[in-house]
Amino acid sequence: MIYGDCQKKEKRTPQQNGKNKQKAAGQNKIRATYKKMKLKNPKLRKERVFLDKDLKATFIMTQVLDKGRFQKPAKTLNLTVGQSIELRCKGNNIGWAYPSYLNNLNNSRLSIIQQQKYSQLTLTNARSADTGEYSCWVVLCDGLECSKDDLKMGKTYIFFADPTELFVPSTNYFDIIYLRSDAPSTIPCRVSTPLANVTLHREFPPQQLPADGSLISYDAKKGFIIRQPNLAQKGVVHCMASLRGTPQISSNYLLLYAEAPSGPPSTTIAASSNAVSGGDQVNVTCTVLGDPELQVDFTWKYPGQQDERPVIITEKWRLIDRNNGKTVRLSKSMLYIDDVETIDIGDYICTARNLIGETTVATRVFSYY
Fold first, then answer.
1. Would the pTM count as exceeding 0.90?
2. Mapped to the 3 state alphabet, what secondary structure does 177-242 carry?
C-alpha cells in the first residue's frame, strides 16, 4: 500500500506576487507577455530509469535503536513478541508496505508519520501475526499520477518469535492451494522464528512428505515450495513445527490440481426450450468451464433489451473435479423470462470474459402457434 500525497506546488500570495512584479520591473524593461520561455518539464520516472539504467539503487531505510542510535536494518531481523520496532525511510513522500494482517486492526499499534525529510513507521507490542516483510520507497508524482521510484527503496523481513504460536496465524482455517504444472506452488506455512523445525504431512494416507530441496523445499519466510506440481500431490496436507517443546500443527491446506490458464473462456449456451409460445417460461443458460482462479464476467444481449423488457439474470459458480482428476471452475449465468411475449423472440447472445480474453456464444428462440 502507498501512503503519501503527491507533491503540490506552493501557492503565491498576492503580496508575494506584488514583490516579484516590482523586482522584475526594475531588472527587465521587456514586457513578460512577449518573452518566450522554454519550459523545463520534470522527467518522469520511466524516462529517468531508461536514461540512468546503470545507476545503482539507493537503500533509504534505517532502524531506530535505543538512545537515538541508527543502523541499516539487516535483510532479516529476529525480534520477540511484545517488542516495538521503529523504521525510517529518507524522503519527503514515502510509500510503505507491511503484512496485510495489520490492515485489519482497529487500534494504534501501527503508525506512519511523514516528516519533512523522512517517513517514520512505528509498531508497538508486536505479535507473531506481524511477522513479514516491511518495505518502503520514494513516491514520484507527475500531477495526479504517482509511481514507485525503483532506485530509492528499502526493505527488511522481521520475525516476531512466539514460542506459544510458532506458525504465523492465517485468516482462514482451511486454505485451497492450486497445483499447476507450469509453475511452483507454495503452501504458506510461515513461522514466527526461523529456528523452528517444520515438516509437511499428508492427511490421507498419513505420511510425512520429504522436503529435500529437489521436489519440495522449505523457506521460513514463504512456506513449503513444491517445485514441480503434479496430479499425484493433490489432497489435504498440514504442517508441523517444533522448537524445544510440544509440536504445533498448522491449518489444513487442500491441494487441487488445475490446468494452467491457456485462453479465453470455454463457453456454451442453451435454452430450456428453443420453441415457445405466448405465456411460456424460458431460461437461457451460459456456461463456462475454466481455470479455478480466474473469475468470469458475463454480459447479455437479448431481443427485448432496447425496450427494457424485464428479465431476471442470476450468476453462480463452484469448483468441480473432472474425470482426469483436474479441478475446474464451473460458472453459469442464467437469463429467465417468466411470461414470453412476441418481443422475446430472437437471438440471445452471451459474452463471457476472463483476464485472458472473451468468448461470445448465441442461441435463437423461435415461436410456434
1. no
2. EEEECCECEEECCCECCCCCEEEEEECCCCEEECCCCCCEEEECCCEEEECCCCHHHCEEEEEEEE
